[in-house]
Structure formats: structure tokens, C-alpha cells
Amino acid sequence: MDINGIREQFPILQRKVKGKDLIYLDNTATSQTPMRVVDAITRMYTTTKANVHRGVSSISQEATDLQETTRRRMARWLNAASEEEIIFTRGTTESINLVASSFGSMLEDGDEIILTVMEHHANIVPWQLLRSRRNITLRVVPINEAGELDLDVYRSLFNERTRLVSVCHVSNVLGTVNPVKDMIATAHAAGVPVLIDGAQAVPHLKVDVTDLDADFYAFSSHKMYGPTGIGVLYGKKKWLEKMPPYQGGGEMIANVTFEHTTFAELPFKFEAGTPDFVGIAALDKALDFIDEIGYDNIEAHEHHLLTYTTERLMRIPGMRIFGTAPGKSAVISFLIGHEHHYDIGMLLDTQGIEVRTGHHCAQPLMRALGVEGTVRASFAVYNTIEEADKFIAAVQRVAAMLE
Ligand code: PMP
Hints:
The chain has 14 helices and 17 strands. The protein is α/β, with parallel strands linked by helices. 4'-deoxy-4'-aminopyridoxal-5'-phosphate binds at residues 29, 91-93, 120, 122-123, 168, 172, 197, 199-200, 220, 361.
């Protein structure tokens, strides 16, 4: 893998923070964007900006083609049965809210949904909002010491009122890669559909929704080298056809009168209003970036960074790493002794190292781990062993300072 060639595509990696070379290790929160994506955005704003799906004018048709090219590509990329199953949203959060609102409206009092304790707030709060409209029950799968789901408990939670499982593919705190294919098979055996929050999976591993047999799969463009403000909801046609629209407005209708409105076909039924068609068009270039490197190479490189760094951090007295599941993703959540995560993060920042501190939008998980927050370092394909070395040395210095 030509790591220098990859890094050259990301101008931000050349910048300084507090006079030091930036070492960007907050890729779980958002990844950086290669120039080809930025160029595609600029090109479209300067040459091809007209609203999509708006009739016969040339530029509108060109813009529509660019948007729909990404949709077709995304369908192939995820191995979806058809492009009608690809809905563009604002992000993982909106994708999950769409299902909670639309699929959720078909639930009845007394129905149950299974979640896990390691979910991001984006996969908790929408279900609680639904609970404020329907008297549903949320069942929660716990984790073990290593940060793996307790699958015995998972299997025991199904009953005749279970209507949905909603679980993350990869934890944004622990890095655990959940056995979602098996979990989906278990749910389907009980006649229950499954939504997978793939926000932390798609940037790092190949996802095949047909192989997984996922009913819904949600993720964000900005974490996978694409533009901000765009998400994808994959949904099986059989569910999307049954589900009512999420938002009303332009683009999602077939015919409107004051008495009665009929809705557009899939996927447009779920895409009210003007989408971020510029960003959607540019997302295609982020897929080019990933495909050029290949997931095998991305996984191998990130796994090397993870094991190299974890091994060395573990030698620091008082080091506590949260999430030690085999095959985990390249996310390291840690604390040093009982030092506050915020102090560790601030001291790392003075050395040019961007990590994340706090609860990582996973307060129930923090409670289960018995901490208020952690420091989180997360890798992307452009990170290097030299950066890992600098990070390790910086954590060693911080540990010595706080001793
Ligand atoms: N789920 C997981 C597992 C995440 O890590 C995140 C982002 N941190 C989200 C959902 C929400 O993503 P977004 O803010 O892009 O909607």
C-alpha cells in the first residue's frame, strides 16, 4: 500500500496543531476527505448546479444523472437487490430516525424492540421517542468483560411481541465487531427484522447486505471519506413498500390535491425536499478512493496499527483499555489509572494529537463500564506507524506527568 500516495490526497494531514504536526486519531467521529471528493464538490458547484428531478432542462438532467449514478453504484457496492432500496438521508442518525418513525408507526402498544448496551445515542433515543408515542418496551443485551454481546441473553429476549432488533455492526467505543450475520439469522428464525447501525463498519470492512440478510442498514458518508450531511439507509423493498413516508414535501409525491395525495415510488417516497445532491454526487468519489485501496488492504493496515499501538500502550502503568474483543476494529478507548479523560485529552492536544474524550454519545455504555468517559484514539487508512509511535510516546509523557 502506497501510504505516502494516500496521505498526499488529504491536504489537512499537512497542517499543524499548536505548532506540532497534526496526528489525526479521531476517525470514528469523522474521517478526513480526499481531494477528489472536494474537487467533485467544487466541480459540481461551478458547472452543474441545478435542482435534481426537475424536468427537462439540461443542467438539471446532468445533476440528476450524477446523483442517480451514486445511488446505482451504492446499490452494487452494498450488493443490494436494487437501487430502489437505497435511500439518501442526512446521516446514520436520520436513517435510524426514519425507520423509528415510519416502521415504528406500524407497531402497537405492548410490542418490543431489542437493542444492546453498546449502542450510540442515535440508536437509543429514536426508539425512546417512539416509546413516547407507542407503549413499547425496549430490551437491552448486555456485554461481557471483553466488550462482547452476551448472545445467550440476546436469544432469550425474543418473544411473540418482539418486532425489531436494532444493533450496531461495530461499536464506536469498544471497537467490537458484532456477529451481526448470526444475530440476524437468530432474529429471522423468530420472524423479526433487523436494523444494523453500520456507521463504524462501512469505513473499515466490506459490507454485503444480501449476505448479511439485513432488513435495514444505516451509515454516514462523512465517516467513510465522503462529504458531511449525507447518509444512506438501505432497506429491503418488502419493508419499504409497506412503510408510510417519513417526511412530506416535494419530490416524494405522485399527485397532490387538498383532498388526497399519492406518493412517489421507491426510493423517492422517503426523500422529501431537495437532497444534498452535490454531496451525493461527490460520495461516488469516496467509493472510488476505498475501492482503489481495497478493503483487504484497509483492514490489514488498520489491524496492524491497532495491535502495534495496543501492545505498547498496555506497557504503561495504570493503562486501562475498554474493549478487548478478538478481531476488534481499530478503536482504542482508554484511561490511565483514575485520571480524568478530559485532562489526558487536553495534554495530548498540546502535542498535536487529536483524539476524542468524553462519553462518545454512549452514556448507557459508560455506565455499564463504570466510567464517566474515556479517551478514544481511532485509526483510518492514512494513519502511519510513525504517527502511532508519536501517539504512544505522547501518552507515555502524559502518564508520567499525571503520576
Ligand atoms: N452510530 C454510531 C455507531 C456512530 O459511531 C455514530 C457517529 N459517532 C452514529 C451512529 C451517528 O452518526 P451521524 O452523527 O453521522 O448521524
